[in-house]
Design goal:
244 residues
Length: 244
């Protein structure tokens, strides 16, 4: 990956991901690779690449190498989460190991793209699959710990993981964590909450989205509201924006 370094693209990425002093990505270092380039590297990694070597990628100084490590975890998890393997004891055990590693190194997913490209495909999918680690209450506790963490990226994980649960028809995770994060002070969370509400409305039920808006539109940050109603008709969007 270092051999693919692109200094011009690196400067663009450092600005885009807010790596300056006092910004949310302060100090992050980039090679200047685009996501498709990182995905090509992941495709070239042998299928038997041991899980034990992934932390070396996750602890790397370079943003794109950490993304590579996260995408390796995604690839491994997805291969173990097919319908055929959903209830297989060996697959359940292996998925739990991947999930545990993902959570252990969660702070290494230290920008929104690293979270958004991985969390729903690992943590979000795991929420709706059999696990030896615990039942639904255990899974809620896992997400609550992330939501209550002082780390912005862990907080974002607890919200964006619901992208997958909504895709799979379960709105409960989105609604729970949208309510928990409704008054979050950071714009990145305002966007995440609105985005996930929009996806829940699109994938599960527009009426559930409307129910949430009736309860909370008046207190939602404007960014959250705009994101949440993006797929509604122009007339309905105007109604919610005027009433908020």
């Amino acid at each position: 990956m270092e051999s693919l370094q692109n200094d011009e693209q690196r400067q663009i990425l450092m600005g885009f991901f807010k790596t300056g002093p006092g910004e949310y990505g302060e100090g992050d270092e980039f090679l200047g690779l685009k996501v498709p380039q990182t995905r090509e590297v992941v495709k070239a990694i042998p299928r038997d690449f041991p899980l034990s070597q992934v932390p070396e990628l996750l602890m790397n100084r370079w943003h794109e190498v950490r993304l590579c490590g996260l995408l390796v975890l995604v690839s491994k998890f997805e291969k173990l989460a097919t319908k055929r393997l959903e209830n297989a004891p060996s697959a359940i055990k292996a998925r739990d190991e991947i999930l545990s590693m993902y959570l252990q190194y969660a702070e290494r997913a230290n920008n929104w793209d690293l979270v958004d490209l991985s969390v729903h495909k690992i943590l979000g999918h795991w929420l709706l699959l059999p696990s030896n680690l615990g039942d639904r209450d255990y899974k809620i506790n896992v997400l609550d710990e992330l939501a209550q963490s002082p780390c912005l990226w862990k907080q974002r994980m607890s919200m964006v993981c619901s992208w997958k649960t909504s895709q799979m028809g379960d709105p409960s995770w989105c609604l729970r964590y949208a309510e928990i994060h409704l008054h979050h002070p950071h714009d990145l969370m305002h966007k995440a909450v609105g985005w996930m509400l929009r996806e829940m409305g699109k994938r599960v039920s527009t009426d559930l989205l409307r129910d949430f808006l009736r309860q909370h539109a008046h207190e939602m940050p404007r960014t959250t509201l705009r994101y949440a109603i993006e797929k509604l008709s122009e007339q309905e969007r105007q109604y919610w924006m005027k009433g908020a």
